[in-house]
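Usage example:
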Amino acid sequence: MADNQWRTAVAGYIDGEPHVRGYNLLEMTKELTFAEAIFLVLKGELPDAKERKLFEAILVTGVDHGLGMPSVTAARNVISGGNPINAGIAAGILAIGDAHGGAIEQCAKLLYDFTKRYADDIATSAGLIALRARQERSRIPGYGHAVYTTDPRAKTLIDIAKTTGHNGGYIALALAIEAELEKLHGKKICLNVDGAIAALLCELRFDWRVGKGIFIISRTAGLTAHVVEEMAREAPFRRIPPEEITYDGLAKRKITSTKHQKSNNIQI
Amino acid sequence: MADNQWRTAVAGYIDGEPHVRGYNLLEMTKELTFAEAIFLVLKGELPDAKERKLFEAILVTGVDHGLGMPSVTAARNVISGGNPINAGIAAGILAIGDAHGGAIEQCAKLLYDFTKRYADDIATSAGLIALRARQERSRIPGYGHAVYTTDPRAKTLIDIAKTTGHNGGYIALALAIEAELEKLHGKKICLNVDGAIAALLCELRFDWRVGKGIFIISRTAGLTAHVVEEMAREAPFRRIPPEEITYDGLAKRKITSTKHQKSNNIQI
Amino acid sequence: MADNQWRTAVAGYIDGEPHVRGYNLLEMTKELTFAEAIFLVLKGELPDAKERKLFEAILVTGVDHGLGMPSVTAARNVISGGNPINAGIAAGILAIGDAHGGAIEQCAKLLYDFTKRYADDIATSAGLIALRARQERSRIPGYGHAVYTTDPRAKTLIDIAKTTGHNGGYIALALAIEAELEKLHGKKICLNVDGAIAALLCELRFDWRVGKGIFIISRTAGLTAHVVEEMAREAPFRRIPPEEITYDGLAKRKITSTKHQKSNNIQI
Amino acid sequence: MADNQWRTAVAGYIDGEPHVRGYNLLEMTKELTFAEAIFLVLKGELPDAKERKLFEAILVTGVDHGLGMPSVTAARNVISGGNPINAGIAAGILAIGDAHGGAIEQCAKLLYDFTKRYADDIATSAGLIALRARQERSRIPGYGHAVYTTDPRAKTLIDIAKTTGHNGGYIALALAIEAELEKLHGKKICLNVDGAIAALLCELRFDWRVGKGIFIISRTAGLTAHVVEEMAREAPFRRIPPEEITYDGLAKRKITSTKHQKSNNIQI
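Running the assembly step on the lines above writes:
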């Protein structure tokens, strides 16, 4: 490939018309739901009706659940500085990282790795995963919740996976880990919404590397609503009130210390 | 509202469960398509089946059409510097501005403004809009295309709008402007995909201010695919080849000019 | 210029070595302060010693003043989501907009415009500016402060401008507006730090369009320190405490309304 | 710390006036160069005159060297979409990642790690580092250049370090690695500008984690100039010319496959 060449298998022009993964964009516009188009663009193939139903559910569940998350706070603060809608959405997406939505891909990778290594021996995989986490005193990505002992969003997604016939080995492993954790710790450390999405994406055979991307696509909808609301309802320039701020740095001092030899005392 | 208070009508917890615009997120996950959830979060109400079909089409049409756009170039260059997926997507969204997707909201505003002023007198509105643009030698947002004399994506969207019963006054006005432009200029200056999306969003009674947001949600899918592909297929650090770069600035010169009095000649 | 050509007058290779605005980057590295290099890259020429002193002061004054601003909040929330340092800094810069640092370029434009129109007749300019703002009930960019009646940062900058011989017509106009505002309103509406920077940049003959850029360069230093501190000292995932959040949207309702005809009830 | 509390040691108000790391911002504005203020805000202490001279040089050397880098391409494409200056700068900074400026912190970490382990035994450290890289067939961060056999920017920085008395153990180690690489590979794999900056930052005892941050502060100056130039000189909407684009994805196909059961054939 020459230096100035660009290539892509995502989409391009065939016979002068735009095509995505080989399908004509005009035909897609007539025939597909948005979720089907997203499935196609990310995975290269169209979902069947059951895969589609499951994927719609994954996308809907991540749309929004209100204020509080770093992504919404970042997005609304950017708008509050007097900026256009795309800058606010971009800042929100910048906040979605390893500690915010990142458990999806880490959990999916874990499920793939252990399934590859121990095939159908779910008990062995679950036992090893739970034990290792306990020994390393680390959290398993996709498990645990600050409030819930059962995360209702995880339960809903798995219920839907059962109706679409996707309750295969990855979901079984995800639930076996939850059971193992309860045995080891004597209390429920629930499979949370991130973990359930991870298991479902494995059932749909998505590359674990797109886990965060799918969450971002989903959450962009909610971020857009927040950003538009911030513009419409709030005065510019959010300010953290002074009483919530503590300066705990160095005490007052003067520049005329011996160390700093007034290097800037330039002759003008 | 106290300084430290945050408020939102988008989503929040009711009786301990997440609700979006009053609907339980769990029920939404079971019942809705992703496009319905987006419609809800942005507009505050669920679409009926016909509105939903039209909105799915709008979202599908913007998903992607390959390389070439500033958004994809920006996104892939950010990944090329060795950065995570969300940074690449965010950079792509940052490129979506007044000259890239911005025609949607400008055109929707125009359609709303003139409809408000001249009610059903579409001929008057179309005539005034086309004439004013000619006098000001300005482009009407949503009209004209570098390649197409008829934009097939615009035609497809309007065809769908006819089947869902949304071919109302806004689409009529959009098409009347196209006809008027042809009369005035003696050649077709077609309603393009941005203009068609604008007319459809008006038919769906969306606030014109969310036009760019809807396009961003749609295109985030394609940007995600590009970013994942860049990571998987390309070596890091895209470099514009030197033969495509021209430095046309000041010629070589020395700092020891009389003007700059070597202010930095500090005594160390 | 061919489609694939890029051109720049900022910097490039001359005889195989990097040059900025005609100066060899190696010579610059030996001879210049960072502020001189910034002055050069933005303005195309090196400052003399007095200009340099004034420009250093402008850059130092914007470095940081702690927590509270939307830019710092956005930056730290992005890090809090588990993201790299550059993503945090970028989010902070995204928050610097019309309502956050934007007064610098708006005020500089105002000073240039009126000086062009009324030349040395500062009294007329100041009178018109203050009167128009009063009639339109609008704020003059660069004037007024929530806490200060005299902004000490503005005073310091203007004091330095006097020592470097830059107290020319633009500073005189900026101060005349302040005096005029006091006469009209019967109370001090002080020239603030943004307004003072604007006046100084006019004295240095900077294009008003780089006003925000200079502030961004300056503040990037503080944002970097905040982002590094957030990584080093804070646990991930900042969360707005629930008691500071109000959901004031629609009340609880069920999806099975007559309007939504369960379109997603797909046959799988 | 209560949930809603924010704390910082970077800057804050003491006796009603802004202070950075204990120094009054007004006094700083009068006394410091911009580089001194950056040194202070990042390191917590003021540099002495020699440290300041070296730090100015580090900052100047990263300002800009023209077109070609992913950061500039991303920044200019964002502007090209019709966006404000801060969005362009932010996109440029987003591109600065592990493969673009990231070698600075990786190299600084390496120099610190080996110095800690082998103290003054530079020969042992250099030998081990070069050997390990050869065995792992990996590049050592901060070494090698596509064009140069000696990177003149690295040489200039080290020359300045000698005049300021900073040619200590870290620079010795950095140069010993270069010599060791030449012995092992039979050709020069030069210490490049990233590696030289890393060694200098170690000599200045900066935390290696701020390496990328310092480069970002420096490069923000150049990005600002590029963004302003793009706005002033170029037409909107950069487009990669079609002849430079290859679509190498799936061939044309129709949606009416057996797999996709026209799930979207909704009854409207």
